[in-house]
């Protein structure tokens, strides 16, 4: 019998738990909706649909063990009351709405934010692995391991990159959980200095490294509905993060309404409080130049700040960015699908689950990359663009 895709609630990214704690303490009654979108055209999920449903049923049977709770309690930014809450926590299948219409996978998550926030990453991992099982049942593992060794050699022998550090951010679109584990353990063993760790809690625990991550887009998106005014939503979200973590986990995400609008809100107060910024869409060189100029304008030495790159990176791209900016800031890199789903020659599925509503109101991400905006309400997207003074993107309604 095939092992379930998800066998522990720790098989997810750290930032899901850090955001979940903030939700428990500050917005426990918030109601949200998430939607799935597969950006890869003409994908037929018909053969996978029943297996995806069974995997979701299994996911909703899981609870954290005492040993797993002890591990989380050892992360000193997670508080005792949150650990006690997790002791009782289980994902509720009733919040997931799943259909397959003419081969198209329709998936929505609706319910309390506190009780739905952990669905996104394991659901994407389930969809990715089940799809790979059906379409690539007998992969050439030797070929995959050869490509993994090529990545290791590229990092190990790269000139001008002595301080280069990277992490695994590849849980949600991985080929399989077993391959993900092998990749992370191989990097940890063969590149102990360059490999900082992984965003995945279960694998961080396994390799004995601190988990990587802070916040995701949904945290800032939600404050479009939770904040006092829409124009102040980013500042409200950043303030909420500071209140929760008091200087810990200090990497801010910049592209929910675009880098230019973000920097208008990221004043001296926030620039001093946060350790750095994360890039997740748009041209990384332009983004970096804007970040460096902003810090210098505020009389802050950019070399004291961490700039984290996480948008569709490959090892080559990460090394190029490091060589370009290493003397001007503290670059770090989160590499995802290129590490965990580079098994077969076919391109991995490009898919996301994004928050689309909070407390009944539409919310959206205005990405710095064309085609990444996702919203059910074209009128709201236009209004959001107008409020923040940025161009309105084309609407993708899923």
From TrEMBL:
<comment type="pathway">
    <text>Cofactor biosynthesis; NAD(+) biosynthesis; nicotinate D-ribonucleotide from nicotinate: step 1/1.</text>
</comment>
<dbReference type="GO" id="GO:0005829">
    <property type="term" value="C:cytosol"/>
</dbReference>
<keyword id="KW-0436">Ligase</keyword>
<dbReference type="InterPro" id="IPR007229">
    <property type="entry name" value="Nic_PRibTrfase-Fam"/>
</dbReference>
<keyword id="KW-0328">Glycosyltransferase</keyword>
<dbReference type="InterPro" id="IPR041525">
    <property type="entry name" value="N/Namide_PRibTrfase"/>
</dbReference>
<comment type="function">
    <text>Catalyzes the synthesis of beta-nicotinate D-ribonucleotide from nicotinate and 5-phospho-D-ribose 1-phosphate at the expense of ATP.</text>
</comment>
<dbReference type="InterPro" id="IPR006406">
    <property type="entry name" value="Nic_PRibTrfase"/>
</dbReference>
<keyword id="KW-0662">Pyridine nucleotide biosynthesis</keyword>
<dbReference type="InterPro" id="IPR040727">
    <property type="entry name" value="NAPRTase_N"/>
</dbReference>
<keyword id="KW-0808">Transferase</keyword>
<comment type="similarity">
    <text>Belongs to the NAPRTase family.</text>
</comment>
<feature type="domain" description="Nicotinate/nicotinamide phosphoribosyltransferase">
    <location>
        <begin position="164"/>
        <end position="391"/>
    </location>
</feature>
<dbReference type="GO" id="GO:0016757">
    <property type="term" value="F:glycosyltransferase activity"/>
</dbReference>
<feature type="modified residue" description="Phosphohistidine; by autocatalysis">
    <location>
        <position position="217"/>
    </location>
</feature>
<dbReference type="Pfam" id="PF04095">
    <property type="entry name" value="NAPRTase"/>
</dbReference>
<feature type="domain" description="Nicotinate phosphoribosyltransferase N-terminal">
    <location>
        <begin position="10"/>
        <end position="128"/>
    </location>
</feature>
<dbReference type="GO" id="GO:0004516">
    <property type="term" value="F:nicotinate phosphoribosyltransferase activity"/>
</dbReference>
<dbReference type="GO" id="GO:0034355">
    <property type="term" value="P:NAD+ biosynthetic process via the salvage pathway"/>
</dbReference>
<keyword id="KW-0597">Phosphoprotein</keyword>
<dbReference type="InterPro" id="IPR036068">
    <property type="entry name" value="Nicotinate_pribotase-like_C"/>
</dbReference>
<dbReference type="Pfam" id="PF17767">
    <property type="entry name" value="NAPRTase_N"/>
</dbReference>
<protein>
    <recommendedName>
        <fullName>Nicotinate phosphoribosyltransferase</fullName>
        <ecNumber>6.3.4.21</ecNumber>
    </recommendedName>
</protein>
């Amino acid at each position: 019998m095939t092992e379930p895709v998800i066998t522990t609630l720790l098989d997810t990214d750290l930032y899901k738990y850090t955001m979940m704690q903030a939700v428990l303490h500050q917005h426990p009654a918030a109601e949200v909706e998430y939607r799935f979108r597969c950006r890869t055209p003409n994908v037929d999920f018909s053969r996978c649909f029943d297996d995806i449903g069974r995997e979701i049923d299994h996911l909703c049977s899981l609870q954290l063990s005492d040993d797993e709770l002890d591990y989380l309690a050892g992360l000193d930014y997670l508080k005792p009351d949150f650990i006690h809450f997790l002791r009782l926590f289980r994902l509720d299948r009733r919040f997931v709405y799943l259909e397959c219409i003419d081969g198209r996978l329709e998936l929505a998550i609706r319910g309390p934010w506190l009780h739905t926030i952990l669905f996104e990453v394991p659901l994407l991992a389930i969809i990715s692995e089940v799809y790979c099982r059906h379409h690539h049942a007998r992969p050439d593992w030797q070929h995959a391991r050869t490509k993994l060794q090529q990545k290791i050699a590229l990092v190990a022998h790269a000139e001008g990159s002595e301080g280069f550090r990277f992490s695994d951010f590849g849980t949600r679109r991985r080929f399989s959980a077993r391959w993900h584990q092998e990749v992370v353990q191989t990097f940890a063993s063969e590149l102990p200095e360059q490999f900082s760790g992984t965003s995945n809690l279960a694998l961080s625990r396994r390799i004995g490294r601190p988990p990587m991550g802070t916040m995701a887009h949904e945290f800032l998106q939600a404050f479009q509905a939770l904040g006092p005014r829409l124009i102040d939503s980013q500042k409200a979200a950043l303030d909420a993060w500071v209140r929760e973590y008091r200087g810990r986990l200090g990497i801010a995400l910049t592209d929910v309404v675009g880098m230019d609008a973000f920097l208008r809100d990221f004043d001296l107060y926030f620039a001093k409080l946060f350790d750095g910024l994360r890039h997740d869409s748009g041209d990384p060189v332009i983004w970096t130049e804007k970040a460096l100029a902003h810090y210098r304008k505020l009389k802050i030495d950019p070399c004291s700040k961490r700039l984290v790159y996480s948008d569709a990176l490959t090892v080559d791209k990460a090394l190029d960015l490091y060589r370009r900016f290493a003397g001007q800031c503290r670059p770090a890199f989160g590499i995802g699908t290129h590490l965990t789903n580079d098994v077969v020659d076919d391109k991995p599925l490009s898919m996301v689950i994004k928050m689309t509503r909070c407390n009944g109101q539409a919310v959206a991400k205005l990405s710095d990359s064309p085609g990444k905006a996702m919203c059910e309400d074209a009128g709201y997207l236009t209004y959001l663009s107008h409020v923040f003074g940025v161009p309105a993107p084309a609407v993708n309604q899923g």
